[in-house]
Design a protein that fits this description.
Layout (H helix, E strand, L loop, with lengths): L16 H16 L12 H11 L9 H5 L6 H11 L4 H14 L3 H6 L2 H8 L6 H16 L8 H5 L6 H12 L8 H10 L10 H11 L5 H14 L18 H5 L16 E11 L4 E5 L10 E2 L24 E2 L4 E4 L4 E11 L9 E4 L11 H11 L8
Parallel strand pairs: 1-6
Antiparallel strand pairs: 2-3, 2-7, 4-6, 5-6
Helix pairs in contact: 2-13, 4-5, 4-10, 10-13, 11-12, 11-13
The structure holds iron/sulfur cluster (SF4).
The site of iron/sulfur cluster has 14 residues, from helix 11 and helix 14.
């Protein structure tokens, strides 16, 4: 199977893009014109749950099948926290943050009482910082208006700050065993393959939801949600799914046709625009770096940054006008690139080495070598600082 069928357009074989694109279409057409797929058995929730009983991932926020059989219930606070952290991020990336958060704030009441800047600092590096602010607000609402207990149904959960349709369904199912329909990216991949859904995402979302909803069992709906996620994460992977180990292999239309990797089909995305800017890293003689806080609203709102220019499409004509103070600013040869959801960013780096007695301008502060890793620095500014000072600082990336 050509793993690039549904993947990127990277020129892996050196052939011209036009030729590769045409080859891809012909290949895809040939696959879809194969002999009709014989009637297949319907997928069964029971088969999936039996597989899950043996192969469930051990996750720090999860009550596994053996624990549930012993009467252990998942903690809604931990389920909620994990689901918010996992949006747009992998389990591997989240585990350390989850353990640090729950060690420091073991209950929703503890998080509600936390200082917002401490929460932002602990979140730094996970991205999508509006979620960190909503996390704090949601904890405050649960503590103040719900007696520190999460609502037990989708509608009540969806009314909380920052809890959207997916998250409310996931918490309702996993923490409260409600028969909610939980569809994340892994589940979309599994079900578009299982039913050979050729409509591209996102238009196919409603079709996937219907198929998932029809399979949610009345007993163990929470474990069904966890099992479909686990199947997508460990067996029905984007490349080379392990169909011989899949509990739904007999029922899977894509497996029967040999077309697993062409699903899910995706509508072409618009190209991201490129914005440019300048970032100024002032380094004091003792190694401290000048920082400031971003405005509370908007992209990376309330997070920490180094001073810099606005970000916009087109050239920055007078970058030094955005420097925090006059100094011997040197432009560094390698700019920093970072991709946000809606645009690519290219930042020119400027560095100035200044005396240990240099005062921070109003609203800014010097972050010392021991303080800097604890700052609420988003990933793009971690790259900026690392790019300007090398590996001299112990920064999380
Ligand atoms: S049989 Fe293969 S493609 Fe189909 S759902 Fe299972 S792992 Fe995915």
């Amino acid at each position: 199977m050509n793993s690039n069928i549904a993947g990127s357009d990277a020129n892996v074989d050196g052939s011209p893009a036009r030729y590769r694109s045409r080859t891809k279409v012909l290949y895809l057409g040939a696959m879809l014109m194969q002999a009709p797929i014989p009637a297949l058995p319907a997928p069964s929730a029971a088969n999936l749950l039996t597989w899950y009983d043996w192969h469930a991932r051990r996750l720090p926020w999860r009550a596994g099948p053996a624990e549930r059989r012993r009467g252990v219930r998942p903690d809604p606070y931990r389920v909620w926290l994990s689901e918010v952290m996992l949006q747009q991020t992998t389990v591997t990336a989240v585990k350390g943050y989850f353990e640090a958060f729950t060690a420091r704030w073991p209950t929703v009441g503890d998080l509600a009482a936390a200082d917002e800047q401490d929460v932002m600092k602990a979140w730094a590096g996970l991205g999508y910082y509006a979620r960190a602010r909503n996390l704090k607000r949601c904890a405050e609402v649960v503590a103040a208006e719900h007696d520190a207990r999460f609502p037990g149904d989708e509608a009540g959960l969806a009314a909380l700050p920052g809890v959207g349709a997916y998250t409310s369904a996931a918490i309702a199912a996993i923490a409260f065993d409600q028969p909610a329909t939980v569809v994340d990216g892994n589940v979309e991949r599994v079900f578009t393959r299982l039913y050979a859904i050729e409509t591209p995402l996102p238009a196919a979302k409603s079709m996937v939801r219907e198929r998932v909803a029809a399979l949610v069992p009345s007993d163990r709906p929470g474990e069904f949600a966890e099992a479909t996620m686990d199947l997508g994460a460990t067996i029905c992977t984007p490349k080379r799914p392990a169909c011989s180990l899949c509990p739904w292999t007999e029922a899977c239309r894509a497996r029967a046709a040999g077309t697993q990797e062409i699903y899910p089909q995706k509508a072409a995305k618009a190209a991201r625009p490129v914005r440019r800017g300048a970032a100024f890293v002032a380094v004091r003689a003792d190694g401290a770096v000048l920082m400031r806080r971003r405005p509370p609203r908007g992209l990376l709102g309330g997070m920490t940054e180094v001073p810099g220019s606005e970000w916009r499409e087109g050239a920055i004509t007078d970058p030094l006008a955005a420097a925090p103070f006059p100094a011997d600013w040197r432009r560094l040869p390698a700019p920093v690139a970072h991709t946000f959801t809606h645009f690519h960013l290219e930042l020119d780096l400027w560095r100035a080495d200044v005396a240990a007695t240099t005062a921070a301008p109003t609203g800014m502060w010097w972050s010392t070598v021991t303080e800097i890793d604890g700052e609420a620095l988003p990933s793009v500014f971690r790259k900026v600082v690392a790019g300007a000072v090398g590996n001299d600082l112990p920064l999380r990336r």
